[in-house]
């Protein structure tokens, strides 16, 4: 059982603006899309529905796409883009001590599988163009980061 620590009390996401992205596992493409957002999702011990709601709304409503004047002013919906969600427990890798990251703050896989499915359903209820990787699978993620634009999010609003 992972130990609970103060750093575990928020959900993490790495959001990348992409011109295209796909994910495959077992030699088969399980999701692909054109322009939009890839969001790597880290679920931590203690994450709640409030954390998921905050991160879902942030991802979908980030103004990170260029308008006609070349200013990042448009949301995912305004460009009619796709959203690819990929669960990634390694976002909770703590490498402050030693050389082997600790994942003690990552939500245990049995619980995280259900929470990730819940998060995906929440995102789909807000925005219909949601794609996803396969929870717990060894995946290959291919993307073209446009800009590049990469945003870090956490539900405790530390960054």
Please provide a written account of the structure:
The chain is of the alpha/beta class. It has one domain (7-154): D-tyrosyl-trna(Tyr) Deacylase, Chain: A, CATH 3.50.80.10. It has three helices and eight strands. Strands 1, 2, 3, 6, 7 and 8 form a six-stranded mixed beta sheet that branches. Strands 4-5 form a two-stranded antiparallel ribbon. A hairpin with a 5-residue loop joins β4 (65-66) and β5 (72-74). α1 crosses α3. It is globular and about 45 Å long. The two termini are 28 Å apart. The model has no long low-confidence stretch (mean pLDDT 93).
CATH class identity:
Alpha Beta
> How far is the N terminus from the C terminus?
28 Å
Helix content: 10-25%
What can be said about the biggest beta sheet? 6 strands, mixed
CATH architecture: 3-Layer(bba) Sandwich
By CATH, the superfamily comes out as: D-tyrosyl-tRNA(Tyr) deacylase
Q: How large, in whole angstroms, is the Cα Rg? A: 16 Å
Q: What are the secondary-structure elements, in order, as H or E? A: EEEHEEHEHEE
How many individual β-strands? 8
What structural class do you assign from the helix and strand content?
Answer: alpha/beta
CATH topology: D-tyrosyl-trna(Tyr) Deacylase, Chain: A
- Any low-confidence stretches, pLDDT <50, length ≥5? none
General form: globular
What average pLDDT do the residues reach? 93
